[in-house]
Structure formats: structure tokens, C-alpha cells
Amino acid sequence: MREITPRKPLHFFVLGTALLYIAVLLLAPIVTIVQKALANGFQPVITSLSEPNVIHALQVTFLMTLGAVLLNTIFGVVIAWVLTRQRFRGRRFLNILVDIPFVFSPVIAGYSLIVLFGRDGWFSPTVFPIVFALPGILLAKTFVSLPFVTREVGPVLATLDTEPEAAAYTMGASQWLTFRRIILPNIWPGIMYGVVLTLARALGEFGAVAVVGGGIEGQTETATMFVFRALNDRNTVGAYSMSLLLGITAIVVLIVMRLLRRSIVREQASHVNHIG
User: Fold this and answer.
1) pLDDT over 60 at 273, yes or no
2) CB of 37 within 8 A of CB of 244?
3) Buried b (16+ CB within 10 A) or exposed e, 58-83
4) What is the Cα–Cα distance from 245 to 258, expressed in whole angstroms?
5) By C-alpha distance, which of 152, 111, 172 is closest to 260?
6) How far is CA 167 from CA 157, 173, 180, 227, 271, in A?
7) Burial level of 271, CB count in 10 A (0-12/13-18/19+)?
8) Which end of the chain has fewer CB atoms surrounding its CB within 10 Å, N or C?
9) Rg of the chain over CA atoms, in angstroms?
10) CA angle (32 as vertex; 37, 233 as ends), nearest 5
11) What is the pLDDT of residue 212?
């Protein structure tokens, strides 16, 4: 599509509508959180974030998020490989299943985990509890962020030239060595972008975690659940402080996403030029 510089009244109307929409839905909440959190300076924020229950909520959030990122990175690449490089009966159905977390309500996802792993669930655990415990939170975060690595790596794998792989096999290289030396460097930007998206999605999850974890203070309470509880307890300083921290984290993730996207575009342009 050809880019144009606004000159006509209609152009300015469309531009103004877009800017107003973004300002109301995106910028206004961010500005409000920053203003409310820093209304009395940085000290109340630091004091609030230093409380033991807040630190524990942050630890649970980041540890479970990193666990979900690790699982979805490994299995996301495997699923992308299966969907891209293998042909089998049920492949289309599997491809549809991968996108279920995009349309599945997180609250229903959390309840489904209770049905599966609760006391009277289909797979009721006997060794350690899953529901209303940290493993349930890990499963919830993993579920809601499952598709991102697969969907970022899959298109990259589909466009790779298979001749270097065939040459490597001809020279006696193993499948693992070929993957590590030839395939992995080419799909690495896609993996990293998928990892960042997974991190962002898992970090901010609330619904599924609230249902399956129960939000038990000092045990299964995450950062997002702390904000919810703090608002109910009229602890506005704590709620705004945690929201500010999560907002800063989200901005950092956004910056990393932009940098990775530029890297992917450069890699694709370089690949096209090399082929040309």
C-alpha cells in the first residue's frame, strides 16, 4: 500500500481518530498508573515493593513465567518442526489445536486444569498437589502462552532451503549436528521473538492463574493477583506500585520485541539478497 502524507481533511480526520483511540485506550491508563504510583514520590513505591508478600508474589510470577517460557520454547520448536517438516494423518487438526489458547477463555482454562488435576479429577495427583499449588500456576501459564514460539518458528522453517541440510547429511553429519549448525542459526531470531511473546503473555496472565492457583497469599499469589487483592483491600499504594513495576517490565519487553523484529527483517532481507 502506498504511503501518503496527510493533506486532505479526510486524511487528518482518520489520523486524528487513530491518535485519539490510542490515547484513550493505551496512553491514558499508563499515564494514570504512573501519576498515581508516584503521587507521593518514589519512597512509598519502594516501601510497598519491599514487603515480604510482594516479594514472594514477584518470585512466584517470574519463576513460573520462566518455567513456562522454557517449556514452550522446547516444545514449541518441536511442534513447529512436526507441523512444517512432517506429513501425517491429523496434521491439520493438530495445527488447529495449537491456536486454542488464542480463543480459549483463561478462566475456563484454569477450571479445566481443576477438572483434570483436582482432588476428584481425571488425573488426580498422588505425589504432590497441582491445583492450588505452584505446579498448577506453571501449567496455566504454559497453556495460555503455548502458541507463540510455534507460530513464530513455523513460517521461518517453511521458507528455509533444504539443500544445505541435504549436503550435511551427505557428508555424514548427524541429524542433531545438522540442526544445531545449519537449522538453528536460521530459526534463532524467530525463536527469540516467540520467547519474548511467550514471556509477555505468561507474565501478565491473571484469569487461569487465579482459578487454578487460588491466589493464596504467601503461597500461590502472583503479581497480577496481588494487584487484584490490593485493590479489594483498599491498598492503592501497593496496587499502583505493582502495576507500575509490571508496566515497566512490559515496556522493556516491547522494546526487546521491536529490536528482535528488526533483526528478523534484516535476516530475511539478507537471505533474499543471498538467494538473488
Assistant:
1) no
2) yes
3) bebbbebbebbbebbbeebbebbbbb
4) 20
5) 152
6) 17, 9, 15, 55, 18
7) middle
8) N
9) 23
10) 55
11) 94
Cell 497480577, located at residue? 224
Which domains does the chain show, CATH number per domain?
Answer: 39-275 (1.10.3720.10)
Q: What is the pLDDT of residue 169?
A: 81
Distance CA 203, CA 229 (A): 17
For 145-177, b/e burial (b = at least 16 CB within 10 A) is: bbbbbbbbbbebbeebeeeebeebeeeebeeee
Residue 108 is which amino acid? I
Q: Which tens digit of pLDDT belongs to each residue from 105-152? A: 999 999 999 999 888 778 877 678 889 999 999 999 999 999 999 999
Please report where in the chains the cell 518441536 appears, as a residue. Answer: 78
pTM to 2 decimal places: 0.86
Q: What is the mean pLDDT of the chain?
A: 87
Identity at 152, one-letter amino acid code: E
Q: Which of 203, 201, 200, 222 has the alpha carbon at shortest distance from 211? A: 222
